[in-house]
Write a structure and sequence with these properties.
This protein is α+β, with helices and mostly antiparallel strands. The chain is built from 2 helices and 4 strands.
Length: about 80
């Protein structure tokens, strides 16, 4: 569960009870699988994105995001 654009991953820590007993837990990011049509590739691209990254795609456009991912070496 990792965002392909922002790199957001689960966070880890302790669940602390009222008596201060500590057990391990994790905070999962809100990661969604989203499908976008990319006109330059003439096909759909499925990306695993956090909700913040989905807003980034809406702002910058899918073409710019795909170019950024390719520059990072992510297979799209």
């Amino acid at each position: 569960m990792r965002c392909q654009l922002t790199g957001r991953e689960p966070g880890f820590g302790n669940r602390v009870s009222h008596s201060q007993r500590k057990t391990r837990r994790r905070w999962n990011p809100n990661v969604q699988r989203k499908r976008y049509w990319v006109p330059s590739l003439n096909r759909f691209v499925t990306l695993t994105l956090s909700t913040k990254a989905i807003k980034t795609v809406d702002k910058l456009g899918i073409e710019a995001v795909v170019a950024r991912l390719r520059a990072q070496g992510v297979k799209v």
